[in-house]
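Progress note, sequence design subtask.
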């Protein structure tokens, strides 16, 4: 109930119609509350916000720290017992929620020589971006893909996958999954296969998918309506030289540098319906123009070093550092040497829903 002071505040100290209407409203809100109802007009501007509101904070995880701790976890639990030995990169503003952004999970996975991570499948799509090591593989839908640093690997919705490391070195990669978004829709399913199916049988040649679909030709009868790419591994060896060609051609965006986005080669669409990724080269001394967009973005530096300024906060990054730029925060990149950034966001999901917006020269 309103206090006497509140009731008097707008009516010359005298109780009157104003007092009546306030009291009547409060009494009404209490009555409808008992029926699990509430007045929209009290919350309108906070549920239909004028601009994006985010809990996500800009943050950088430095690889030196991350690698040491991930290696330490290798002495505590095996990949097999853990199912996936991953340290979650938790946004400091959303601790305990397994989120890097509101819609994306990020983690660092490590697989030691001789280890396997058993097969499973889930509705959530995943991408891997390789940071360290050489010659471990992921097997996706019967195709083994051996991985090298900078490789960008996708695991689509419901595709069975397992990982193994027959090499002599540990392999570490960044995992990004869309399960915060899937769980927002409360639409998650997963199968954890039993012991005898721990590793998938290989049914295709290693690297078939990039050779078949990523070479400017398509096998007869290739489907043209896939909502996700048929390519499993977009190798750094194939993608990186394209950035040099763009740079030579002078195609350097004032905010995003010389950038390509990974596509489904069959239709030019995003690699996954929920997540999209890019690779960008920034010349030495690049001073980017401010930009903002509604997709919160996870970046990884693969070469060089620099800073990204996010609304006054300066994130400093070097090779293999991972950083997050929240939705609709103005940001710009600066480099002190020629640098390459990989990035991934939920932009395709937002575009499919018609809600994505971006702004150049954001001031
Ligand atoms: O490698 O299959 O970081 O299913 C989280 C969930 C990795 C994986 C993660 C997963 C995986
Ligand atoms: Fe998985």
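Output:
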């Amino acid at each position: 109930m309103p206090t006497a002071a509140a009731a008097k505040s707008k009516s010359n100290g005298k109780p009157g119609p104003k007092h009546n209407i306030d009291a009547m409203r409060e009494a009404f809100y209490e009555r409808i509350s008992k029926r699990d109802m509430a007045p929209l007009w009290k919350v309108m501007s906070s549920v239909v916000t004028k601009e994006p509101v985010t809990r996500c904070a800009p943050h950088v995880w430095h690889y030196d720290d991350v690698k040491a701790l991930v290696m330490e976890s290798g002495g505590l639990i095996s990949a097999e017992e853990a199912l996936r030995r991953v340290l979650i990169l938790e946004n400091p503003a959303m601790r305990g929620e397994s989120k890097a952004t509101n819609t994306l999970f990020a983690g660092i996975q490590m697989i030691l020589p001789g280890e396997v991570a058993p097969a499973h499948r889930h509705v959530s799509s995943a991408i891997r971006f390789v940071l360290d090591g050489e010659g471990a593989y992921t097997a996706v839908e019967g195709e083994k893909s051996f991985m090298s640093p900078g490789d960008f690997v996708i695991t689509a919705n419901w595709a069975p996958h397992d990982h193994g490391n027959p090499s002599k070195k540990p392999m570490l990669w960044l995992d990004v999954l869309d399960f915060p978004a899937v769980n927002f829709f409360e639409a998650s399913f997963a199968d954890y296969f039993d012991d005898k199916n721990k590793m998938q049988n290989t049914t295709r040649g290693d690297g078939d998918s990039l050779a078949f679909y990523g070479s400017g030709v398509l096998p007869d009868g290739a489907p043209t309506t896939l909502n996700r790419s048929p390519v499993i591994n977009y190798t750094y060896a194939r993608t990186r030289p394209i950035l040099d060609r763009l740079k030579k051609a002078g195609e350097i965006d004032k905010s995003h540098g010389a950038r390509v986005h990974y596509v489904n080669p069959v239709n030019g669409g995003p690699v996954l319906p929920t997540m999209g990724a890019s690779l960008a080269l920034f010349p030495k001394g690049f001073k980017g123009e401010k930009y903002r967009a509604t997709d919160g973005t996870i970046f990884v530096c693969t070469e060089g070093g620099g800073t990204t300024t996010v609304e006054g906060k300066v994130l400093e990054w070097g090779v293999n550092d991972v950083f997050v730029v929240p939705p609709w925060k103005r940001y710009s990149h600066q480099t002190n040497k020629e640098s390459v950034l990989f990035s991934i966001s939920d932009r395709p999901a937002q575009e499919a829903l018609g809600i994505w917006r971006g702004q150049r020269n954001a001031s």
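Residues 7 and 13 are 8 Å apart (CA to CA). Work on this subtask will continue into the next period as scheduled.
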